[in-house]
Give the backbone structure.
Amino acid sequence: MNALLKFVGAVALAAGLTAVPALAQTKLTVPGGSTTGTYMDYMKTVYARASGAELLQEPLTSFDNEYQLTPLAATSWEQSADGLTWTFHLRDGMKWSDGEPVTANDYIFALQRAATTGYDFAWYWSFASGIKNWDDVSAGKADVSTLGLKAVDDKTIEVTTAAPKPYLPGVVSLWYPVPKHQFDKFGDDWASNVANVLSSGPFLLKSWEKSNNSVVLTKNPDYNGPWVAQVDELTIDPSVGLPEVGMPAFLAGDLAYTTLNAGQIPVVKQRFPDSIRKEAVFATSYLAFDLEKAPFDNADVRRALYYAVNRDELTATVLKDIAIPAHSILAPGYPGYSDKVAAQAVFDPAKAKELLAKAGYPNGEGFPTIEVWFREEGGYNGAILPAMAQYLQAQFKDILGITMNIKVMPGKDWMEGMLARKNNIYLAPYEYDYLDPSNFYGLFYNGGRHSYHVAEYDKLVAEADKNPVWEERVKLYEQAEQVMIDQGLIVPLVHPLITAAVSENITGPGVTPNSRGFTPLGRIGNFLYSHISVK
């Protein structure tokens, strides 16, 4: 064990290991995220929540490993004819771990409290759900009773939105109940004291070590929902969350899986190829422009850059194992992803040169020196953006004769500069906030993130956003992205990729690659941890 803890790189790993170690039965330890947490309540705080808070409670809906919407607490739902009211019907027999029934009022109370107490995730409900009067109630301009939420009876929830939101059933995948009867006794301490914490989901809280935010969860024997835990005990340990620490623990047989850094990936691929899982990050890095500033006020210039990027080479060399080519604003597997749209983003240097010449800059002659701005980032973006910017710099010079300088900026300055339109080209990353195509297409709608006002695009997106028929919505979004391609509104570049190693002794849909070859793992924690077992 001590030798493994001294693991420092690929050479030591390749030289000394031949098999993935075994794990104990019915008990699993998995890596966690933040080492600090204040409340075991997702509806109190998202960014400072305790590890596993969302595994204790049952959201109305969730997504499976194919990213298909799945009923959980809500067994069915319907939208009114005018598109403004949704009715959700709760599952029979739901109970808190103290035996009290879970009711519609527990869900209503959770969001009413979130709207009136400075919830750090309130922006999500304003942005994604469009619940009637949410902003006014959150700002203290309207009484909470005017919020578009109603418990029709103990098993029926009614939600009224300010505008039609056909994707609301997916948004409420992050709507968890709060036990009002327990809150009435203890206030917020219901979620800070282990003895007071109640569960409505597949796991119970056994212990919580607040010094590092590690928790031990046990299977809830009274849970009657569709996603029953398959292991008796689950430990979530943030102290082994980083791959540099997680990998030795995994090799010692102490972790069910671990994420891998770029240096670890090739060695694990060679030694334990069957353990590798790739986790899709629904994020896209792309080039965006100021459509009114030269030289990017010319669509042919923008489209020249679209065809001048060799995405396959970029992700096979410079960004090997940490990104995949982006051929659309949507990543493969994301709801609404279109193979038809993606097929158009090809590397075609001849076409790129032709378009630039058509714009009046043959071989880049007369083209002004430009400067791409991107922001300082950590995590996967920190590994991707600087290297990609340098690759693009060389690619545009070699193929188009364009000189592009690079400017790295603090995130605040970058965002302020982009919103104030202080530059004409930006390297922009964006990760999804909710699983619906409207999330990404909204970035460029009616001003949006980049001050774009393209009438044809806006009309299609507006129609898609309110259309209740999924197939029709997807076609409208496809048409909208075709406008983006035809007018060169963006240049999609890459989607980040997280690679993990999974123990050979773990099985189940939670660790099985989906039809696209991705394994969501921690991206959908309530699916993962209720769909894995020990062989």
Observations:
- The two ends are 23 Å apart (CA to CA).
- The first strand starts at residue 27 and ends at 31.
